[in-house]
Design goal:
The chain is an all-alpha fold and 452 residues long. Helix content is 58%, strand content 2%.
Length: 452
């Protein structure tokens, strides 16, 4: 947009002059044309316009019906690009980054499996590569589709900039192409894209793992056969030992082991049951000591408005101030936090999340003891920098492949060991937790899942 320079003795009305300058500034911002110190584009001082250009007289430009139709449409397209199209492009680029990270996860898991199987089973490697190729082909196809959308968005922006940022403003050309640009713009803004990544690395073929499981079952069967042979040998050597006594001895051994498992199950069930219900007012857990005790917090008729309580269920107003506990299920956000000791007479209570962690640690202690796993050596083999930490991908692999934890247990243990979500897990702390059960009680109070 160009303006006719003022001549001596001629002044434009103040109101019209202010309006014209503002429109010129807005147009220069949209088109990217720099301005001089007076706020006027440098090209405004060039030669008179050629035939077919917009007249330089501001009054004629404002009264031109073509310019009146051009200006709001130009503003509409610009607003849609900045408010919707550019953020959409950023979302597509971020989705590409997430897919790339998933690619790295798949490649890492594939590399570990390939290193273990290459020495013995070439056929397993070929089938594994085929499965990886299928997954990567799907992911690369999704990246390609997203990249095409990004290129279409860039093409729309470039076409718009060519029409709106040229040295010669051509409203007629813009109006002729407005419908196509607007349709393409609305189509790209409304076009959905797939956010979830359905391809996961955990279902890659693990034939070697299956073979190992068969070998473990074979060892267990062999131990059972050895025990049977020992029983037969003792029966044949000692004629006084009757078949009934041998059966009773076998049943006694089995019953003792089953009794130990039953005690352990009852112990954990009792601990979980103890923390199922807590008090709405003070957060005390329901047990034989609190069920008939007085509540130290429920002693006023009116509860403060900002007091949310500790349970999902809220008691009736008539219940307030009766100095009794009101037990119900805890709120969801309290499941992974220690209760604030300052609000409960400096007594910290465990939550179901911490009971779950104790169960996982107990399971790991038994598995490591039964299978004689050198946990420190396992982590050290994967810790290239020898810093005592591994990332979440390596930790998930070790926990799943070697420690035999399921995905839910791995997620819970990762949140406990890395509450801040730094993608760095200190396996030295995990070794201390497994070696000393009392070490769990000495860990400082943390806020778990605060960023979820």
């Amino acid at each position: 947009m160009f303006f006719k320079p003022e001549t001596e003795g001629e002044e434009a009305p103040p109101v019209k002059k202010k309006t014209i300058k503002k429109k010129a500034a807005d147009t220069s911002k949209l088109s990217g044309i720099p301005e001089d110190a007076e706020g006027v584009p440098p090209d405004s001082k060039r030669a008179p316009p050629h035939p077919g250009e917009i007249p330089e007289d501001p009054n004629r430009m404002l009264n031109n019906p073509l310019f009146a139709a051009y200006k709001p449409r130009l503003t509409k397209i610009s607003q849609l690009i900045w408010s919707a199209l550019l953020p959409k492009r950023d979302q597509l680029i971020a989705q590409i980054h997430r897919i790339d990270y998933r690619n790295e996860e798949i490649k890492y898991v594939k590399t570990i499996i390939e290193r273990d199987a290459r020495a013995e089973y070439g056929g397993i490697i070929e089938r594994l590569r085929y499965a990886e190729g299928v997954k990567l082909a799907i992911l690369n196809h999704e990246i390609g589709e997203l990249q095409k959308d990004i290129e279409r968005i860039s093409e729309i922006i470039n076409n718009f900039n060519e029409l709106a940022s040229g040295q010669v403003v051509d409203p007629a050309n813009f109006m002729a192409r407005f419908q196509i640009i607007n349709e393409n713009l609305e189509y790209m803004i409304a076009k959905p894209f797939k956010v979830t990544i359905d391809v996961v690395p955990h279902d890659l073929p693990r034939e070697l793992t299956e073979i190992r499981h068969h070998l473990q079952r074979y060892r267990a069967s062999q131990a059972l056969l050895d025990f049977k042979d020992e029983v037969i040998y003792r029966l044949s050597k000692n004629a006084k030992l009757s078949t009934r006594e041998a059966i009773e001895e076998l049943e006694k051994t089995s019953s003792a082991e089953m009794a130990e498992w039953a005690k352990l199950t009852d112990k954990f069930a009792a601990q979980l049951k103890k923390y199922q219900l807590i008090c709405f007012y003070c957060g005390s857990v329901l047990d034989d000591g609190t069920v008939n005790a007085k509540c130290k917090v429920n002693n006023v008729q009116a509860v403060p408005d900002d007091f949310k309580g500790y349970t999902q269920e809220v008691p009736a107003k008539s219940y307030h101030g009766n100095v009794r506990h009101y037990f119900a299920k805890p709120r969801e956000e309290l499941f992974r936090t220690y209760y604030d000791p300052e609000a409960k007479d400096k007594i910290a209570f465990k939550t179901p999340f911490h009971i779950t962690i104790e169960l996982i640690l107990s399971k790991l202690r038994k598995f490591i003891s039964d299978n004689r796993v050198d946990l420190h050596k396992v982590f050290l083999d994967h810790d290239k920098n020898k810093l005592g930490t591994v990332n979440s991908i390596i930790f998930s692999f070790i926990a799943f492949e070697i420690l035999r934890l399921d995905q839910g247990e791995i997620t819970q243990l990762s949140r406990f060991l890395d509450p801040a979500g730094t993608n760095s897990i200190n396996y030295i702390e995990l070794e201390k937790l497994i070696a000393d059960p009392k070490y769990f009680e000495s860990i400082p109070i943390r806020e778990f899942g605060a960023n979820e």
